[in-house]
Design a protein that fits this description.
This protein has three helices and two strands; from the N terminus they run ββααα. The protein is mainly α and 126 residues long. One of its GO terms (molecular function) is copper ion transmembrane transporter activity.
Amino acid sequence: MQSSFYWGKDMTLLFSSWVTRNPVHYALVVLAVFIFAIAHQFLGYIHKLYNGSSSSGSSKHKHAWLEMLVGVVLYGAHTTTGYLLMLIVMSFNGGVFVAVISGLCLGFLIFQAIERAMNVNGIGAE
């Protein structure tokens, strides 16, 4: 197991069966990790939106437990993807590290822009 950053196409990602041995597989892994990092930011954005909409006084109806369950599932999915990204970075592959950071930054930019646009138009909760 690698314990320092390295650049190369030969790597194992999360499981011993997920091994890249050629440039095409490596490029696909880097792309998938990049998209996964954006998806993590999306889950955080959806969770934030959901919390803003569910706390606006609608929790007194008879399905309050369902709203809470949806909030817990969103929180769990966001937390799980965060830990998986941490484990992915711990592969110590430079390209994968750059893909994670780039995906997180791009996802933050996209969803921050959407949130600001919604707030300017009066659509967002806060």
